[in-house]
Design goal:
This protein is an all-alpha fold. α1 packs across α3 and α2 crosses α3. The longest helix has 19 residues. The radius of gyration is 22 Å and the shape is elongated.
């Protein structure tokens, strides 16, 4: 049996494995409950990340724009 790493599982999760490697991983997931549990956790984490709003707060945007404006004025004189 081929050793499946956590890195292999991540690549499989994001459909970045070859067809041959994908088949090996599928077989390993079907026979190794610990590996299956680890993969299921990754799937849940991925779904959670996809639902996360990663937009900055308006306050942060305003501070960046104010700083950039201040720097522009300092370097233009």
């Amino acid at each position: 049996m081929t050793h499946i790493t956590q890195d292999d599982l991540v690549r499989y999760l994001y459909n970045e494995t070859s067809d041959q490697k994908s088949e090996l991983i599928k077989e390993a997931l079907a026979t190794d409950i610990n590996l299956k549990n680890q993969f299921d956790e990754m799937v849940l984490s991925k779904k959670s990340l996809e639902r996360t709003d990663l937009s900055p707060r308006q306050e942060s945007i305003d501070k960046i724009l104010a700083y950039a404006s201040q720097e522009k004025h300092l370097h233009s004189h």
